[in-house]
Amino acid sequence: xxxxxxxxxxxxxxxxxxxxxxxxxxxxxxxxxxxxxxxxxxxxxxxxxxxxxxxxxxxxxxxxxxxxxxxxxxxxxxxxxxxxxxxxxxxxxxxxxxxxxxxxxxxxxxxxxxxxxxxxxxxxxxxxxxxxxxxxxxxxxxxxxxxxxxxxxxxxxxxxxxxxxxxxxxxxxxxxxxxxxxxxxxxxxxxxxxxxxxxxxx
Length: 202
Hints:
By secondary structure, the chain is an alpha+beta fold. Helices cover about 25% and strands about 35% of the residues.
């Protein structure tokens, strides 16, 4: 993989300490540090969870949850964008030996990540902007965003600097075949995914 290797951090970690306090006080919330900013996300709604489960199935059917790679939810990704930066993607495809790449705070070196995927919630701007820069900087080969607000599925590939060279949005009715770099052919039905994740009416 071409992901950026991250040096093991050391010393005081005031932001991580605060992030961990926030998680302890708010069970079910996701706390991340992206470019030095604490990002706190409430628990996702039911359709988010359904879409995420439905998204796992084609990866598993393609044999990507086996001896070479694993499909995992909520695995911490250590970022090279700051001394305490980390993200927790909704779904990741990682090398099977990811445990050998532990960095800190239950997070792993980006070198073992082949793909990250986010299903948007109320903080969709973070997934569509801040995390694009963060994941590109970490040289994650493929970033998939299920944009429930705008009813699009985005596939970003070829990280360069703090952006991706290729960014293709897909609409309902289209079928997406993910890049071969992930290790197998995975096809996603955009309409089915967006329907599964359609937010509940308030």
